């Protein structure tokens, strides 16, 4: 009896310590997939619950009508992109776009003046027309990345007018022109780069521009091959932190740590990622940035540029967006099948399975 009061706090303490220690663990089953060479320990550990939650896709507004009948071009006044599509399919796509992008309380009127559906007076309609072309380009030109799974407006928008994950040119440093005080975005903990002390804006140069993603040149002294400075190494790592976080994977999902540079040792996923980087540049440079004058001020960042796409916009923490579930059969016109595939940089051209760049890394480093 006298022992009880001393025993109980001990048990509580053990329990308390156990809770603190286990507090860092995620509860629930995990699956481990081997993604690299056998025995190399290149495993990915996944929480299937998280994937199931992120992959919930909305039900189609009504069943997809058959193709055929009078076209939208014949039936309506001001159809520029989808003129050849059957009118019933066109109407179905309008209902889907409303569900995928428009705030529910506004519905069709988010893009249309209900008195005059043909009018282009709302900026949202002009943006949506360009987004239709962009989505077709992603599925056609960039099938090297999105494969047959493809994307729809929902992959990025998920029912929001503005996608939840996007970027603009960062606010900048207080005294950008000066050497002293310009930290190049370093030591400013930011989730984009996993709270590391790396430069926090890897997007403007690598996903807005076409800067080389390299940690070092293939030569020590300035010559034709010396095209990245050592300073670029930290920025490149910053982007790699973003890529890993966006897909919910670690570095060895794509790289073999024996040599991060060697394409021969890398996984096939690194090739897919290579095309993904070029696809994102094309999305931002060809489609979104030119819409800058169309967007109102509240849809732009502190430097007046529109919100742009990075890997998280579609992936949202999963190696395949929406857990690999395809929605494109519900909107086949978005396939954009007639668009030619992009030719890899440094590669010999279309029709060749492995671009030269992959077997000869210097092909991508060569200054052009
Ligand atoms: C996210 C923006 C958006 C939403 C929401 C939207 N539309 Fe549209 N709508 C467009 C665009 C863009 C076009 C022009 C397509 C083209 O040029 O190929 C268009 C064209 C039309 C046209 C052809 C008008 C004409 O005479 O030229 C009709 C009809 C139409 N939409 C009906 C609807 C209906 C009905 C809804 C609601 C169920 C709806 N739209 C929701 C963007 C939208
Ligand atoms: C690759 C990702 C992506 C896809 C796919 C995509 N969008 Fe967008 N969309 C964006 C981003 C990012 C913005 C935000 C631009 C801004 O606000 O500065 C945007 C903005 C918009 C806007 C303006 C929203 C507003 O309120 O200002 C409309 C309308 C729109 N998209 C329609 C569509 C439609 C329709 C589709 C499918 C045909 C589509 N989008 C597919 C990324 C995407
Ligand atoms: C989803 C695939 C993927 C993941 C995950 C990934 N990388 Fe990369 N990495 C790439 C690709 C693709 C390139 C080549 C970029 C290019 O040329 O466009 C690259 C390039 C690099 C380079 C430059 C090699 C050279 O030629 O100089 C380094 C170093 C690197 N990654 C390190 C990392 C590190 C460290 C991580 C983890 C934090 C990581 N990567 C995660 C795909 C990935
Ligand atoms: C427009 C949407 C979109 C964007 C943006 C995007 N991806 Fe993807 N990605 C996809 C789709 C869809 C797939 C699935 C393709 C498939 O079914 O094999 C995919 C697949 C991948 C895979 C292969 C995964 C696997 O397990 O086979 C990698 C790696 C990848 N993406 C990397 C990236 C990187 C890196 C970026 C940013 C530079 C990026 N993605 C941006 C849509 C996107």
Write the layout of secondary structure elements.
Layout: H1 4-22, E1 31-34, E2 43-46, H2 48-54, H3 72-75, H4 87-101, H5 123-140, H6 143-146, H7 153-157, H8 203-208, H9 231-247, H10 268-288, H11 311-315, H12 356-359, H13 362-365
Antiparallel strand pairs: 1-2
Helix pairs in contact: 5-10
The structure holds heme C (4 copies).
One heme C (HEC) binds at residues 97, 101, 124, 127-128, 131-132, 135, 151, 153, 155-157, 161-163, 166, 283, 295, 299-300, 306-307, 309, 313.
Description of the structure:
The structure is a single chain. A two-stranded antiparallel sheet has the order 1-2. The chain has helices spanning about 5-20, 50-55, 70-75, 85-100, 125-140, 145, 155, 205-210, 230-245, 270-290, 310-315, 355-360, 360-365; strands at about 30-35, 45. It is mostly helical and about 375 residues long. It has 2 domains: about 50-165 and about 320-335, Photosynthetic Reaction Center, subunit C, domain 2 (Orthogonal Bundle), CATH 1.10.468; about 165-315, Photosynthetic Reaction Center, subunit C, domain 2 (Orthogonal Bundle), CATH 1.10.468.10. The chain starts with a helix and ends with a helix. The longest helix is centred in the C-terminal third of the chain and has 21 residues, at about 270-290. One heme C binds near residues 241 and 277.
């Amino acid at each position: 009896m006298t022992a009880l009061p001393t025993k109980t706090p001990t048990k509580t303490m053990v329990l308390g310590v156990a809770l603190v220690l286990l507090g860092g663990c995620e509860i629930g089953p995990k699956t481990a997939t081997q993604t690299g060479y056998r025995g190399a320990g290149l495993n990915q550990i996944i929480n299937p619950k998280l994937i199931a939650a992120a992959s919930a896709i909305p039900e189609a507004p009504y069943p997809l009508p058959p193709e055929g009948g009078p076209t939208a071009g014949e039936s309506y006044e001001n159809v520029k992109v989808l003129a050849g599509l059957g009118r019933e399919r066109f109407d179905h796509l309008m209902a889907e776009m409303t569900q995928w992008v428009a705030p529910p309380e506004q519905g069709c009127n988010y893009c249309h003046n209900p008195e005059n559906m043909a009018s282009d007076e709302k900026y949202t309609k002009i943006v949506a027309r360009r987004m239709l072309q962009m989505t077709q380009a992603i599925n056609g030109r960039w099938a090297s990345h999105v494969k047959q799974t493809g994307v729809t407006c929902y992959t990025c928008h998920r029912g929001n007018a503005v996608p939840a994950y996007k970027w603009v040119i960062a606010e900048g440093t207080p005294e950008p022109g000066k050497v002293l005080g310009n930290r190049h975005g370093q030591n400013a903990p930011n989730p984009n780069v996993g709270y590391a002390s790396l430069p926090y804006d890897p997007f403007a140069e690598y996903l807005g521009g076409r800067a080389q993603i390299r940690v070092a040149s293939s030569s020590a002294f300035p010559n034709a091959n010396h095209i990245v400075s050592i300073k670029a190494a930290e920025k490149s790592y910053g982007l790699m932190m973003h890529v890993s976080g966006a897909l919910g994977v670690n570095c060895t999902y794509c790289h073999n740590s024996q040599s991060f540079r060697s394409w021969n040792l890398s996984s096939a996923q690194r090739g897919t990622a290579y095309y993904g980087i070029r696809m994102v540049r094309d999305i931002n440079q060809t489609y979104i940035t030119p819409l800058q004058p169309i967007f109102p001020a509240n849809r732009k960042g502190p430097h007046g540029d529109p919100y742009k796409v990075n890997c998280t916009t579609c992936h949202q923490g999963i190696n395949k967006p929406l857990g690999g579930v395809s929605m494109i059969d519900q909107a086949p016109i978005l396939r954009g099948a007639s668009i030619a595939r992009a030719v890899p940089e440094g590669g010999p051209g279309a029709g060749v399975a492995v671009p030269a760049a992959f077997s000869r890394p210097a092909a991508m480093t060569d200054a052009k």
